[in-house]
Amino acid sequence: MTKRIVSDWYRRGTWWRRVRFNRRYKDVLFRRLFRDRKDLLDLYNALNGSTYENPEELEVVTMEDVIFMKMKNDLSFIIGSHLNLYEHQSTWNPNMPLRGLLYFAQQFEGLVATRGDDIYGRGRIELPTPVYIIFYNGKGMHSDKLMLYLSDSYSGGHGSGCLECTCEVININRGYNCALMEKCHRLWEYSELSAEIEGNMKKGMKREEAVQTAIDACIQRGILTDVLLTERGVVQHMLLTEYDEKKHLKNTFEEGRKEGIEQGMEQGMREGLARGREEKLRELVQKKLTKGKTVLQIAEELEEEISVIEQMAER
User: Fold this and answer.
1) Residue 149: phi, psi to the nearest 5?
2) pTM to 2 decimals?
3) pLDDT for the residue numbered 263
4) 166, part of any domain
């Protein structure tokens, strides 16, 4: 697909105005750092070994708040014939390929609609090649890269089904993907700031103190000074908000888990009591039947409905 076709798609792409957006999203720092096309192009070149120099060749097509998240952490852009979706994650999520599939489906739907392509026609419709990458700086990943597959979520398992979506997860924690960090200084700076914060928290600092101390340390080391010196308050707010969102999600999960356990215990107790009462009632009915008493007499003596006693008598 030529750049002209892609540009026409984006400029005429009024299709997403029909989508109901929640524009009250919160940016995360990663997205803020790479929203400038020059920095985003540097990241793309570092990942792909390409040598693009003109930021104008990169066309940002990020759809605002369409991937069902309060925290806005994605960057979507077109360069050459590729539609790239970059996301940042600090908590592990095995459903990232599914999110990518839904995102690309929306983008392709918009492309077909704005160009007026006939999906039932005899000619093949040209589409930009989708590329989905996650930059991960959370816990639990101990390799440089990892590939996730949508088919792992299918009941048939990996490789089954007629539809696949892959997601490459790139570890940007300190000490990983060193060659990539050397090629993209901005990414290395972000990794260092994140590592400073986590290191401070391991020392026992509260989140706010850990963030402030990390920012001071990075400024002294000349890391992200263009942003930290001019937008310190904004950066600090982003980092703390992101942490609060992660904490909220974790607490919500814990509350739901505890509530589920409590409800399960209560239900189990109720069912257990009901079974115990039924067993006791059945024993009494059986004894009275062996003594030759009628269903009506038993119901009156046990103060139970006749229908209940009749059912037990039949059993």
Assistant:
1) -125, 135
2) 0.70
3) 62
4) yes
